[in-house]
Design goal:
Blueprint lengths: L13 E5 L6 E2 L2 E2 L3 H15 L3 E5 L16 H11 L3 E4 L18 E4 L6 H4 L3 H8 L4 E4 L21 E3 L1 H11 L9 E5 L8 H8 L4 E4 L1 H10 L14 H13 L3 E3 L3 E5 L7 E4 L8 E5 L1 H12 L3 E5 L12 H15 L4 E5 L1 H10 L7 E3 L3 H7 L5 H6 L1
Parallel strand pairs: 1-4, 1-7, 4-6, 5-6, 7-8, 9-10, 9-15, 10-11, 15-16, 16-17
Antiparallel strand pairs: 2-3, 12-13, 12-14
Helix pairs in contact: 1-2, 6-8, 9-10, 10-11
Length: 391
């Protein structure tokens, strides 16, 4: 895979830069700028190389139809302030745009309107990809988080232009190699989320590499139920005992130790105060919404004896401050051990990042992934179309 950092003679050329700017919007206000902040380096890199930039991105799922609520305009305005340069948003029909009339002499950065306004994008239409490609001199994919999608601006476009990996793409892959192929043991995976079935591929693929697998959050409820503990009215997934049995057998075969909560914080509903309980004391009316202090202390010891830690998924219902302690403590423990260089830390997932943003410690981990689905599919060992297209 060729990296844009290694390329010379970019001055005066037009870069088609594929980014993932799919940020949460409410009334056209940006609720989380994490993804935006991560792409600023590649824009500045290309500008320093005297390259003109045509950005391709999307927001939401407009299903091939124009939707003003999903316009890239508020994102353009946000990036303008960050790079201190004027950005033009092209809203005219993409098929009517020609390369020679794209930029004026003064313009350096232009955005195409939401690429998913065109149905051809998601069906990976070859003619559509060729039309986009005709607008630039080379292509840069800096959207690892979109690279599990076989879409026109992600994979098909590379057939028509010299194509390179961007700065963020390369750093994401390098970080994920740290927990897949270039592992420094002992390695620990702390995994949360509500559904164990959605992450079974990830778990199975990692158990032959891990020393420790720690279940927290809603996912841990399935393990507790499997082990015969009462979980009251807690969220759990049905029909997953065979999956859990496979996980335990695979872990034992690969000498991977599995951990789950020893104590928990419960409430009667999602808005209630928390009560610490041992597993044997959980009542029929209880909802498990966080891990307890004994479990936090156990996880602390596991992390402190690890050289690599991968964290995906909060430890509980952190939206209620009465149940945020477990997630915040895990965040703090990983952060502290990263800062003293005792481990390499990779964290990922939207909810995990929301926890980290609560503490303002985003820059205190070795790598924070915003990739979501692509992140998990890569760790499952699947081939991502966007990466395959660059190879």
């Amino acid at each position: 895979m060729k990296n844009i950092e290694d390329q010379e003679n970019l001055a005066g050329k037009i870069a088609l830069l594929r980014l993932d700017l799919n940020v949460p919007l409410k009334n056209k206000d940006i609720l989380d700028e994490t993804r935006i902040d991560k792409i600023i380096p590649v824009i500045n890199f290309l500008l320093n190389r005297k390259t003109k930039i045509l950005v391709i991105s999307h927001v939401g799922r407009p299903n091939g139809k124009k939707n003003n609520d999903l316009s890239l305009k508020p994102i353009c305005l946000n990036i303008e302030k960050k790079i201190k340069k004027k950005i033009k948003l092209i809203t005219s029909n993409l098929y009517e745009i020609t390369k020679d009339k794209l930029f004026t002499q003064e313009e350096e950065v232009i955005f195409l309107e939401n690429i998913r306004f065109y149905r051809e994008e998601e069906i990976n239409d070859s003619k559509f990809a060729k039309q986009i490609a005709s607008l630039g001199d080379f292509y840069v994919n800096d959207a690892f988080s979109c690279s599990h999608r076989d879409h026109a601006s992600v994979s098909k476009i590379t057939k028509f232009l010299p194509s390179f990996a961007g700065l963020q793409m390369q750093s994401e892959i390098n970080a994920l190699k740290k927990i897949t192929s270039d592992i420094e043991s002992p390695i620990t995976c702390i995994i949360g989320g509500s559904k164990i079935s959605t992450k079974i591929g990830l778990i199975k693929n990692l158990t032959n590499k891990l020393d420790n697998l720690v279940f927290v959050g809603g996912m841990a409820n399935n393990i507790l139920n499997f082990k015969g503990f009462k979980i009251g009215k807690s969220i759990k997934e049905d029909h997953c005992n065979n999956i859990i049995d496979d996980i335990f057998m695979n872990a034992e075969k690969n000498r991977c130790k599995i951990y789950y909560p020893e104590d928990v914080r419960v409430g009667k509903n999602f808005d209630s105060h928390s009560e610490i309980k041992s597993l044997k004391d959980i009542s029929k009316e209880d909802i498990i919404l966080d891990i307890g202090p004994k479990t936090v202390e156990k996880i602390k010891k596991i992390i402190e004896n690890s050289r690599t830690v991968f964290w995906n998924g909060p430890a509980g219902y952190f939206e209620n401050e009465n149940f945020e302690n477990g997630s915040l403590q895990i965040c703090k423990i990983i952060e502290n051990n990263t800062k003293n260089n005792s481990l390499y830390s990779v964290v990922g997932g939207g909810d995990t990042i929301a926890v980290i943003n609560k503490t303002g410690s985003l820059n205190n981990f070795n790598f924070v992934s915003t990739a979501g689905g692509a992140f998990l599919e890569y760790l499952e060992g699947k081939e991502l179309p966007g990466i395959k297209a660059l190879n």
